[in-house]
Amino acid sequence: MPKISILPDVLASQVAAGEVVERPASVVKEMVENSLDAGAKHIEVEIQKGGASLIKITDDGSGMGREDALMCLERHATSKLKDASQLSAITTMGFRGEAVPSIASVSKFRLSTREHDAVEGTEIIVEGGIVKDVKAAGLQAGAIFEIRQLFFNVPARRKFMRAESTESAHVEHQVKLHALAWPEVRFTMKKDGRTLFDLAGVRDKRMRIAGLAGAEAGRALVEVPLTEESGMEVHGYVLPPEFARKGKRQQFVFLNGRPIEDPAISRALKDGFKGAVSDGLNPSAWLWIEMDPKLVDVNVHPAKKEVRFHKPLEVRHLVFTAVEDALSVKKEKTQELRGVPKIVSRKDGSSAPVRKPFEKAEEVSSQRVEKVSSVTELKPSVPTQTAVKPAAAFHAPEKQEELEMEKKEKDTPKFQILATLHDRYLLMQGEDGLVLLEPKAARERIVYEAFLEGGGEAVESQGLLVPELIELDARDLDVVLTNMENFTEAGISIEPFGGSTLQVRSMPAVLAEKDPRAFVIKLIDELVETVGAKRGKQLAFEIFAEKLAKRAAWNEVCKLSGAEHLLAALFKCDLPYCAPDGRPSLIQISLKELERKFS
């Protein structure tokens, strides 16, 4: 008997579904792309229970006749490719003809469609890849795809689906991606019977960005004007460096109307900021790239997320130049508004600022003198002694507590604060050499133990005079909702404010944070790394506290004023010599080691 045989059509479709249908958001992506290819001007997406129970896509596109409706359920059946030459210049969103049969093979599927000039439409019911019924139906022109009980016949795949809120967030993100790529199309999304958003078709891309990213981002947009090079063009918008985020979740790149992810473009985008964005952060941007379809291969990834450029260096240079020029123009305008002097070149090749007529040289020199004198006035501080209090979870008698504090005070090392080194380290004289303190690591340890010392009880919070409203991406909102209990225990009071907007009402009293919005957003970026991890409540809170401490210490400044208080707080901690992630907060260079260096 032969060992090799042809897979049955239904099984082959289920195998293909493993590549095309990863989660409910993948189904939405494929179906919306088909609607766009059909010329739809209004696309409505509705889901229930994160898409596991129902995914319904309704469009007003061209629709299909009875014969085409049946044919679209066959594998590799497509109207978008006729010969091999078209494969090298694809102009449509979909083209393989695998999406519909693959989805129908792992769900209870219903297709209702009618052409605009047809009297009646067609309704087809498919269950697990097997056609159950075909009948005439009366409906509006266009198509309606209903996918119920996704993966009902593939339980192993269903187990890999995440929580309902997480799947809903991914679906919402996918719809918003296409809404950005095609701003002229109206997009409506409903979730469990409630309308999340209804975006009217617009010509101005800024309106679509503001409608999805929030009014604050919309006001801060910096336009990247249309730039052409080597037969390619790019235009779009970026946000100033202060809006940079950890990760690339706020970078949206569209190639010929297709959302893509490309590391070369991300690198060029960051290079265009010329170091204004620090390491570990990435700028926020919305870029639309247009080029001849022959210059790009979109058939390199099953889900069509990645592409291969035939001229990658030219694409990177195009994006870099466009972003660099846009930011240069923005900088010049800002300087003019602030009265910052322009820089001109001298004949000898040097440069000098152009001063206003009333600006005197004496004023400039006096500023220099004041700057120098302010530095020389700094004097070494007096050695400081601090004491450590016992953990809050251990309730000892007052006398025992006093004895422990006295003992700890005797064991606390004595330091004489000398100076700062490159605004990064505090230099101190210890009993046996030179001691260096990293303020950021010290602050992390202080904040971390301040959160944990209550034994899991809520941290004292301080109400904001004016609650802060934050508009988030659907996936970021899901991170907050997942960690809501941790936020509350950490003293951050957050409440849903409708849609994807949150309201921050209070912040931890231990933090002197002047910008709650920036703090919470950066904290979310830190938490993204641990999304989906199954951890116990206490361990989850410890990880949350570590991320929170790291974010709280982000803006810690190394300065002599306040160094004594920082040391005092540090040596009240149980583990003052290291940050929560294990890196040292203090290091010592002994006198013997220094003597060896000079011998």
Question: Alpha-carbon distance between the termini?
Answer: 85 Å
In CATH, the architecture of the largest domain is: 2-Layer Sandwich
CATH superfamily of the largest domain: Histidine kinase-like ATPase, C-terminal domain
- Any idea of the CATH topology of the largest domain? Heat Shock Protein 90
Per the principal axes of the C-alpha atoms, what is the gross shape?
elongated
- How many domains is the backbone divided into? 3
CATH class placement of the largest domain: Alpha Beta
Which secondary-structure class do the elements indicate?
alpha+beta
Number of strands: 24
Uncertain residue ranges: 343-347, 349-397, 532-537
Main β-sheet, spatial strand arrangement? 5-4-3-6-2-1-7-8
- The helicity comes to 25-40%
Keywords:
599 residues, alpha+beta, Heat Shock Protein 90, Ribosomal Protein S5, domain 2, Ribosomal Protein S8, Chain: A, domain 1, eight-stranded mixed sheet, 19 helices, 23% strand, elongated
